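User: I'm putting together notes for a lab meeting next week and I want to include a structural view of one of the chains we've been expressing. I don't have a solved structure, so I'd like a prediction I can at least talk through. The sequence is below, exactly as it appears in our construct file.
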Amino acid sequence: MTTIKLLASAEDHHIAKMAAVALGLTVLENAIPSPLPGVKPGLANIVTLIVLTRYGWRAAAWVSLLRVLAGSLLFGNFLAPGFFLSLSGAVCSLSVLALSLHLPQRWFGPVTDSILAAFAHIAGQMAVVYLWLIPLAGISYLIPIFATAALVFGTVNGLIAASFMDEMQSPSPKGDEISEQSRKKPSRKADHADPAKR
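Assistant: Thanks for the context. Below is the predicted structure for the 198-residue chain, given as structure tokens.
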């Protein structure tokens, strides 16, 4: 009998931890009452933005898709319409974030990335609703509401993600000791391609 061993790298552990944090925020988000079905803060996107900036698009994609899959299994809606709505929103958001990596960093950052991703998320979900669930032109009347929610929550989530990243980059009280260690240990960020340096 042969035994198959799967060896997890340090990056795998980071992705798993961040996906778990994103899943926890999804659970918290589902406990918040929503005035309209589908209008949610998107708190898990904060984690996606942080991972995108620190580890690159590939890691962010893993975190986002694992969060969607684990969340659907946790809430019991795997392969249900809700799962495909979340999946379509995540795929559209990740696609836009991949394109946003090529935007000038001088004018674009976590806040603009968050807003663009929020609009893409809503657009993906609205497309699935119209093409599959409710093929009625009347759903277009909901677009201003969802667009406003995407703008507000995208801005707030982007600001929160930016503040977290600023704190992680701020010097520690043991700055001299840590800076000396950082010279000896290469940064994970330096091992990635240019998109991860955002």
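A couple of points you could mention at the meeting. Residues 143-169 form the longest helix (27 residues). The CA atoms of residues 48 and 64 lie 6 Å apart.

User: Perfect, that's what I needed.
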